[in-house]
Amino acid sequence: MVKKNSIHFIGIGGIGVSSLARFYFAKGSRVTGSDLQQSALTDDLAKEGIHISIGKQTAENISPETTLVIYTAAVPATNPELAEAWAKGIATKTYAQAIGDLTKEYRTITISGSHGKSTTTALTALILEDGYCDPTVIVGTKLNEFGGSNFRNGKGVHLVLEADEWNKSFLNYHPEIAVVTNIDTEHLDTYGTPEEVDKTFAEYLEKVPRHGKIIANEDNERLRNVAKKF
């Protein structure tokens, strides 16, 4: 399903990026990464066998074997590692773009909403696990049930994904089932107005195919008004 290659992650200490790094590492890819700050997440990744550079990010961190660089949207274009990848003609993707490609390979269940995403993602994943579906899971928190990890390496056809609306990231995803907990006025640095938040959630739900499902919290008025269009 996933090509074995050599992937470098800029900002690998982020909760989402670290989970994606674990995914590719579990599937057999060579994985390296860098982050400005050491953290419990980077320590855990290093213990699992992923080589991580902490501190100053330099062009030297992009090895000749690197075939893909994945970076967080917060990484500036002036970042030396990103600039080196561009200079060498190495493929680059944002975290959201890379996740979007991944969602095409599975029967993807995305969990989005202003509040409660991580909890709902965890509940969905554990229900599918108990139901013998053996899902792959990418979640924005550490779960005791996953050995303190934010990733579960499943062999089934389902991907359970916590889908963040920040920077309109979830518009990159291709869910078969979209679960939405609620809509609130957040991330106005991205959206500007509450109306734009609602409009973008509608764009997101439009991506669900006709054979798919939308599961929306009817108690949330803004979400109810958006979801009823579908």
Furnish the topology, listing elements before pairings.
Blueprint: E1 6-10, H1 15-26, E2 30-35, H2 40-47, E3 51-54, E4 68-71, H3 80-88, E5 91-94, H4 95-103, E6 107-112, H5 117-130, E7 136-143, E8 149-152, E9 158-162, E10 177-180, H6 188-191, H7 194-206, E11 213-216, H8 221-227
Parallel strand pairs: 1-2, 1-4, 2-3, 4-5, 6-9, 6-10, 7-9, 10-11
Antiparallel strand pairs: 7-8
Helix pairs in contact: 7-8
Question: What's this model, at a glance?
Answer:
By secondary structure, the chain is an alpha/beta fold. 33% of the residues lie in helices and 23% in strands. It contains 8 helices and 11 strands.
Structure description:
The protein is 33% helix and 23% strand. Strands 8-7-9-6-10-11 form a six-stranded mixed β-sheet, sandwiched between helices. The longest helix is centred in the middle third of the chain and has 14 residues, at 117-130. A hairpin with a 5-residue loop joins strand 7 and strand 8 (149-152). It is of the alpha/beta class. The model has no long low-confidence stretch (mean pLDDT 95). It is built from eight helices and eleven strands. The two termini are 32 Å apart. Helix 7 (194-206) crosses helix 8 (221-227).
Specify the structural class.
alpha/beta
SS elements, strand count: 11
Helix content: 25-40%
Largest sheet composition: 6 strands, mixed
Radius of gyration: 18 Å
Distance between the termini: 32 Å
Number of helices: 8
Which overall shape is indicated by the principal axes computed on the Cα atoms?
globular
Low-confidence stretches: none
Q: How confident overall, as mean pLDDT?
A: 95
How much of the sequence is in beta strands?
15-25%
| Main sheet strand line-up | 8-7-9-6-10-11
H/E topology pattern: EHEHEEHEHEHEEEEHHEH
